[in-house]
Amino acid sequence: MIFNSFGLLLVATSLLQLLHHGTGQDCKLADENVKEIMIEQLKNDCLKKGYESSLTGCEAEGEPKLNKKQRKKCDKTEKKLEACDANCEGKTLNSLQSSIYTLLVIYYSLT
Question: Least C-beta-crowded within 10 Å: which of 2, 22, 100, 104?
């Protein structure tokens, strides 16, 4: 038989790695929910304050009102999302997800 147990294990491992990493090779956001939360963070903390993003569907609201530190944080968030092929077109968060979002915002601001 062409596939011995080692070959089958190799194929299974390769498939699992492909599924785990998805399309964004440089994506550091392991969970799809984390990516959604980061998009909400970009919308609430950056776009609403006039930050101009290059991500699809992410449009600034009004004139820029960000200081240097806020802009740097927005740049960092956008860079992480860009590596994961994220965009601003999609679903919104419910109240439970919003609570988790708040906790994760605090966590990511410390890292």
Answer: 2
Per-residue pLDDT tens over the stretch 17-32: 444 444 445 787 777 7
User: Do the Cβ atoms of 53 and 46 come closer than 8 Å?
Assistant: yes
**Full 3-state SS string of 7-42:** HHHHHHHHHHHHHHHCCCCCCCCCCHHHHHHHHHHH
Residues ≥6 apart with Cβ < 8 Å to 32: none
Tell me the one-letter amino acid at 45.
D
Higher pLDDT, 17 or 44: 44
The Cα 75–Cα 77 span in angstroms is 6
**Among 33, 36, 22, CA closest to 77:** 36
